[in-house]
Amino acid sequence: MGKQKDKSFPVVGIGGSAGSFSSFEKFFTHMPADSGMSFVIIMHLDPHYKSQLTEVMQRYTAMPVIEATDGIAIEQNKVYLLPPNKDMGIHNRKLLLLAPSKPTGIRQPIDYFLQSLAEDQWNRSVAIIFSGMGSDGETGIRMIKEKLGLTMVQDPETAEYDSMPLAAVGTNLVDFVLSPEEMPQKLIRYMSHPVLAEEASDQVKSSIENANAIQKILMLLRSHTGNDFASYKKNTITRRIDRRIAYYQLPDYGHYVDYLQENPQEIDTLFNELLIGVTKFFRDSAAFDSLKNKLSHVIQAKTKKESVRVWVAGCSTGEEAYSVAMLLIECLDTYKSKDKSRIQIYATDLDADALDIARAGVYHSNIAADVSPERIERFFVKKEEQYSVKKELREMIVFAQQNLIKDAPFIRLDLLCCRNMLIYFTTELQRKIIPLFYYALNTNGIMFMGPAETIGGFTDMFAAIDPKWKLFERKKGNIQMNKIIDFPFHVAKQPMNITKIEDPRSTASEKSVVAIFNKVLIDKFTPASVLVNEKGDILYSNGKSGKYLELPSGEAVVNIHKMAREELKYVIGNSIHQAIAQEGTVITEAVKLKEDKHVRMVSLKASALREPGMEELVLLVFEDQGLLGKKPRTGVITKDNSNAKELEKELVYTKQRLNNTIEQMETSLEELKSTNEELQSTNEELQSTNEESLTTKEEMQSLNEELMTINMQYQAKAEELTRLNNDMKNLLDATEIGTMFLDNNLDILRYTPQVRKLFNLIPTDVGRPIVHVVSNFETPFDENDIKEVIDKLTIKEIDVKTKHNEWYRIRIMPYRTLDNFISGAVLTFTLVTDYKQMQSRLQVLQDYSASLMNTIGEAVIQLDIELSVLAVNTRFLEIFQIAEKDVFGKSLGGFLKERWKTEIPDQLLNKCLRTRVTQSALINIGEKEPRTFELTAKPFAEETNTTPLIVVMINEQKESRK
Hints:
EC number: 2.1.1.80
CATH class of the largest domain: Alpha Beta
Number of strands: 35
Domain CheB-type methylesterase: 5-194
Largest sheet: 7 strands, parallel
CATH topology of the largest domain: Rossmann fold
Oligomer: single chain
Region (Disordered): 675-694
Pfam families: CheB_methylest (PF01339), CheR (PF01739), CheR_N (PF03705), PAS_10 (PF13596), PAS_4 (PF08448)
Number of domains: 7
Distance between the termini: 112 Å
Structural class: alpha/beta
Strand content: 15-25%
Domain CheR-type methyltransferase: 214-473
Helix content: 25-40%
C-alpha cells in the first residue's frame, strides 16, 4: 500500500469497453455519493476522438467527475477518467499519465492501471470489469487478487459484449460475479467489514481467542488438503482469511471456523486463496534480458552431449516457464544449434488447477502487451481470440505437482527460478530452502529470484551476478550439506542455531563487566576443550586447541579422529568410547606429545553429556602439564622418570586398550553370528526372489514386445486421425457451409467458424446449451425443431432471415454414430440469399406477367411441354364461362375439342410443338349463332425445355359477334 500518513481509503479501478455505458449508468446510479471511496474509470477510447465522457458520466452520479491530469492526487467520493491516447498508473495515490508504450490494438490500458493500482494500494484496491471485447483486465484481476484486493466482474449474461467478463471469470480469481446494479451494495458491505479495518486489525488478530481460531483453521486445512501452512508468514495467512470473513460477512475468526466445519468446500476455496500465484510472460522484462545474457554463457560452456537443466519452482499457470523456454531457444539460435532436446525444463507448483492451465498452454490475446510480435509469431498459434503455444515449446517443459516444503528437489540444475515465492515463507523456512537450492544447483549454476527476495546470510553459498534483478551464482567449493539439511527434507525440524558473531568494532565500554570477566576467564584460564558427538564430529571448540589438533590435507573435515595429532588419536578414541560406555568421566594422564626437541605432557579428560532431545555428546578437555623434566604448572604429583616407570605406564595403558578391544570383539562376534544367520535366511529368500524375477523378466519382455506393437499401431492410428481431422477441417472450410454438432441435451459439441456469423459464440461456449447462446436471427431460434428431429428421426429444413437481411437454410438431421446410435443432431447453415432474391424477382415477374395478360383483349393461355394449361387470363375465363381451377393442369386440345367439337385445335398445338413455328387457324363453331375464333399458337423459345413452352391466343372475330 502507498506510504500515506493520512487514513487510507479504497480505490476502485473500473474497466470497460464496447457496450459498457449502460453498465456504468446502472453502477453509479446505485452507488451513494458518500461511499468514502475513489473511482477511476479506464475505457478503450479512440486516440483521435475528443471525448465527451466526462459530461456523459456526470449524468449518472452526484460525485464530481474529473478527467485525470498528470500528477493529480485522488480524493474520496470523486470519479476520475482516463484521457484518450494515454496510459495511466498510480503511485502514492497520485495518477500519472504516460505516452502509450504499445500501438493501438496491442495496448491493454485496463491491465496497465490495475497492475499499478495493486502495487500501490494492496488490500485497499478494487478491480471491476464491465462489458467489452477482448481480454483486457484479465491480468489486472490476477495482480489485484495477489495483493489481497477485491475483484468484481459483470455477469456475462447481462453484458452486451461478454468477452472481457468471460476472460476475467476464467481466471477463477473473481470474488463476485454480479450485475452492475448489484455491485455497489456488495462493495460497500465488503470494504466496511471491521476485520479489514487497519487500525483494529493487528489488535484483533493478536488476541488469544483469535490466535487459537487461526490455528484451528490451519489444522482443518492440513487435515483436508494434506498441506501444512504453518511455515507460511502469519500475516499472509491472516489477511487471506480476513478476505473470506468479509466475503461471508461473518463476525470473527471463530464463526469462520464453524463455517469451515459446516461447509468443507470452503476449505478448498481457502486453500486456493492461499496458493494464489500470479505471473505473466516476461514479468520484469529487464530481469529476463539480464537472465538471457547469463544463459548464453551457460549454454556456451556446455559440450554438445551435455544438457541444460532448468527448474521453475512455483510456476503457477506456466507463463514464467514458457518465458524461460523462449530465452533458451533464442540462446541456442545464437550458437546455431537446433538440438532442443538438450534443454530439460521442469516446472512445478502445488496448485493442480494452475498446472492444468500451464499444460494446456492457451492464453488470452492480452499477452501481446508482454510478448513481442516476433516471439508471438514464432512461438504461438492464434486460435480465434487466444494464443496457443506451439508444440516445439510445449514439449520442452514437464509440468508436475510438487510441495517444495516436503518433496525432493530436482538436482544437477543449471538454472533455478523461484520468483516471488519465498516472500510468503517465514524466515526459518527460507533458511532451510535456500541451502536446498544450493544443493540442487551445479557449480556456477544460476538462481533467479524475485525483486523483493534475498539470499539472507548465505553469502558463502551464492554470489550476486546481478544484484538489481536478483540473479545469483552458486559458488565453487564443498559445503557439508549434512550440516545444513537433513534428508528427507521436511518442515518439522527445529530452526538452525545461528551463532552470533560479535562486531569487532564494539568497544569495551559497551559491554558489561560480567561479560568482560567471563571472556577473560574463558580465554586465559580455561583449558582447551572441544565438544564432539559419538562419531567424533566437532560441534564446538574453546581455547587454543592448535597444540593438539591439526588440519589434515585434502578435503576439509571437522572430525576429532582425523584432526588429532598422531600421539593422541588412540587415546582420544579410547576415552570417547569409555566415557559413553560408563556414562561418566574418564581421565587419562601423562600423555606425551613431541614438541621440537622436547616432550610435552598432556592430561585428557572425557566427560559424557546427556541432554533431553539431543544426541549423546562428549566433552574433551586438554590440560597442559608442561614439558617433560620441568616442574608441572598444576600440582601434578612428581614421579620417577626412569624408563621402567614409563614402560610400566605404557603397559597398563596397553592392557586397558587390549581389554576394551577384546570386549568389543566379543560383542562384535556375537553380533556377526546373529547377522550371519539373518544373511543366510535373507540369501535363501533372495534366491527365491531372483527366480521369480527371472520369470517376471521374461514375461515383461514378452509384454514389452506386445506393447511396442500396440504403440506402433496407435501411432499409425494417431497419424491417420490427424490426417482425417485436417481433411475434415479443409472440407468444412471449403464448403463454406456452417455446421454445428449438438448432443441429445442440445449442448454444443463442436462448430465450424462460419457459424459465428449466426451465433455469438466463443470457445468457452462449447458444452453450453444452444438456447443459451444469442443468435443473429430476426426471430428467436426454436429448440423444438431440433427435439422433433431427434425424437422422430426425420430431416427438417427451415429458411430463416438474419438481422443483416441475409437468408439461411437450416437443415437439421439426426447425428448417427457408426453403430447407428442417435447421439444428438447436426445443423447445417447454407447461405441462400441469392436464391431468395431470385425467387422474389421471379414472383414479381410472374405477377407482372399475369397483370399484362389480363390487360390484353384476347384470351391468352400458357402451356407446358405436355400442352397442359399453366395459366390463363381473365378474357379466357369470360369466353368459356369457367373458373381457373377447372382448367388448370388440363390438356388445352382436349378442353377445346370437348367445347368446340373439333380436332383442329389439338392438331394445331401438336404441329407447333413439333415444328417450333407459330401456327394459326380460324375455327367456326355453332349453327344457330355461328361464331368464328382465330387460334394462334406461338412457341415460347426455339431451344428451351423450360415452361411455359407455348403461348396460345384465342381472338373472337368481330363479324361473328355481330
